[in-house]
Design goal:
Strand order of the largest sheet of chain A: 2-1-3-10-4
Number of strands of chain B: 0
CATH topology of one domain in chain B: MetI-like fold
CATH class of one domain in chain B: Mainly Alpha
Strand content of chain A: 15-25%
Subcellular location (chain B): Cell membrane
Distance between the termini of chain A: 75 Å
Family (chain B): Belongs to the binding-protein-dependent transport system permease family. CysTW subfamily.
Number of helices of chain A: 9
Oligomer: heterodimer
Distance between the termini of chain B: 18 Å
Membrane topology (chain B): Multi-pass membrane protein
Largest sheet of chain B: none
Pfam families (chain B): BPD_transp_1 (PF00528)
Radius of gyration of chain B: 22 Å
Main location (chain B): membrane
């Protein structure tokens, strides 16, 4: 009889355990409506690197204004995660990656509808809290024992670039955390949990209210090219082509330059 | 939740069982059988998919890769430490909820269960705001003792305990409510104080309930992802637990992610099986 009560509580517990969610999931992008050839209508689903969040959001709004009847939906995350989603068959129209290596994952799988085109380049800076309280001037300052540093994981482009820059400088740096994408690394600086993070110049600029970006010479050897491509399984291939053309055009260029991206 | 019914012949469970013996295994209506089988398939197929895609040939070398063992060791250590922390704090809390009356007890019970329904990432953010370097408590810890919790193994334990403790509290509270309070009253009439009665009578009485709660708590802690990655970050050997390793492996190497997932699946199933054998028995 007592055993039965435990059975109940354990069963309830097991149910709770089973329903306990786990974070970190990503919503699948919604497939767009089919656009009839030639006309740009419906939804264009764009998977873009986290570092493109601010500039692509603005470009998307401008693209919608220029093409009434079109909705652009974005999914911003680490490039390699997005590449995985595409090779797993996520129904997306456009992929914009933060490195040729992550784009290669998609092209190797044959998921691209056209040749990827590099549309911007980006360079690393050291993001520090506003006013630079630790007085960080270069990579060497990051190795001090009382300085906590966040890097991106090597699997994502900002982490690969950081490794290249650190290796070039001969700096042996032990970070406290390896974040999943560049925005996560930046948010650790914003929260004050770390003293510095290696992020893109554009990210530091987008967060200028909270962080300062410290330029360092070694970043010149670790410049990232950003390729963009239309996808083979695109539900809205006309919209995909139109969006990529728009990103390569003059209006988008102005937005990207203002965000701190370099022209390839 | 267990009912407060005192006799064996009433209560929903007994009624259910009587009904079952009356009806036996009569024909199952199609309207129930089809969705039931669909539901079962929905729950079992993904696990089967994991097994089907497992690279069995390269499994041994993948399992012994240094990163995998490191993550597994860290996961086991932190989940165990989190469970111990939950036992230390959770059992007294459950006793308080089950055996005492105080104003606002219902509110306290509701608060205890909040981490169950809170998205773990939100829990991680909340932990950062309290225990982070600029947090309410974390700031003071940092200034006074130079202790920082985020990005440390201690941080992982805290994140896991925060998410898993409600399981233990609910299970133990249920066991306490189900246990006969008259034994404790008898102990009190024989001169035992409340602490003695708790230690010598109540604890042995509800030990199976505590054990079951602890196992569930441990399993939940083992699978914790969101709060951990938000609060403790991701660093191999220090804060990179198995779920984090799975997530990162997905970025590069699907097979490695499958192998890591398989390890977690095996551990989880073993836990549930041990629970079944020991506590979920049909009387």
């Amino acid at each position: 009889m007592r055993g039965r009560r435990w059975t109940l509580s354990v069963a309830v517990g097991a149910l709770l355990l089973a329903t306990a969610g786990c974070g970190g999931g990503d919503d699948d992008p919604r497939p767009g409506a089919d656009g009839s050839p030639g006309a740009v209508t419906g939804t264009v689903t764009v998977l873009a690197a986290a570092s493109l969040t601010e500039s692509f959001t603005r470009i998307g709004a401008a693209f919608e204004a220029a093409n009434p009847g079109v909705t652009v939906t974005f999914s911003f995350a680490g490039s390699s995660q997005l590449a995985q989603q595409i090779t797993a068959g996520a129904p997306a129209d456009v992929f914009a990656a933060a490195s040729p290596a992550t784009m290669k994952t998609v092209t190797d799988a044959g998921d691209n509808a056209a040749e990827p085109q590099v549309f911007v380049r980006n360079q690393l800076v050291i993001a520090v809290a506003k006013g630079n309280p630790k007085g960080i001037t270069g990579l060497a300052d990051l190795t001090k024992p009382d300085t906590k540093v966040a890097l991106c994981a090597e699997q994502v482009p900002c982490g690969a670039a950081a490794k290249t820059a650190l290796d070039a400088a001969g700096t042996a740096l032990t970070p406290v955390t390896l974040e999943q994408d560049v925005k996560q690394a930046l948010s650790k600086v914003r929260l004050g949990e770390v003293d510095a993070a290696l992020v893109y110049r554009t990210d530091a600029r987008a967060a200028a209210a909270d962080v300062d970006g410290i330029e360092f010479p070694e970043s010149a050897g670790a410049v990232n090219d950003y390729p963009i491509v239309t996808l083979k399984q695109a539900p809205n291939s006309a919209g995909a082509a139109a969006f990529v053309a728009y990103v390569l055009g003059a209006e988008a260029r102005a937005v990207l330059t203002e965000a701190g991206f370099q022209t390839p | 939740m267990p009912t407060s019914a005192k006799t064996a012949g009433t209560g929903p469970v007994a009624r259910l069982r009587r009904g079952r013996t009356r009806r036996g295994s009569a024909g199952v209506p199609v309207a129930l059988a089809v969705p039931a089988l669909l539901g079962l398939g929905f729950l079992v197929l993904p696990l089967a998919g994991l097994l089907i895609r497992t690279p069995w040939t390269s499994l041994p070398q993948r399992l012994t890769a240094p990163g995998v063992l490191e993550a597994l060791r860290l996961s086991l250590v932190t989940a165990t430490a989190a469970t111990l922390l939950c036992l230390l704090l959770g059992v007294p809390l459950a006793w308080l909820l089950a055996r005492t009356t105080f104003p606002g007890r219902r509110l306290v019970r509701a608060l205890v269960t909040v981490p169950l329904v809170l998205p773990p990432v939100v829990g991680g953010v909340a932990l950062l705001l309290v225990f982070g370097r600029r947090g309410l408590i974390g700031g003071w810890l940092d200034e006074t003792f130079g202790i920082t919790l985020p990005f440390t193994t201690t941080g992982v334990v805290l994140a896991e305990a925060f998410v898993a403790m409600p399981f233990l509290v609910i299970a133990v509270e249920g066991a306490l409510r189900g246990a006969d309070a008259r034994y404790e009253e008898a102990a009190a009439t024989l001169g035992a104080g409340r602490w003695t009665a708790f230690r010598r009578v109540t604890l042995p009485l509800v030990a199976p309930g505590i054990a079951a709660g602890a196992v569930l708590c441990w399993a939940r802690a083992l699978g914790e992802f969101g709060a951990t990655i938000t609060f403790a970050g991701n660093f191999p050997g220090r804060t990179q637990t198995m779920p984090l390793a799975v997530y990162l492996a997905l970025e590069q190497d699907l097979e490695a992610a499958i192998v890591l997932s398989l390890v977690l699946l095996v551990v989880s199933v073993a836990i549930l099986a041990s629970l079944r054998d020991r506590w979920i028995t049909s009387p």
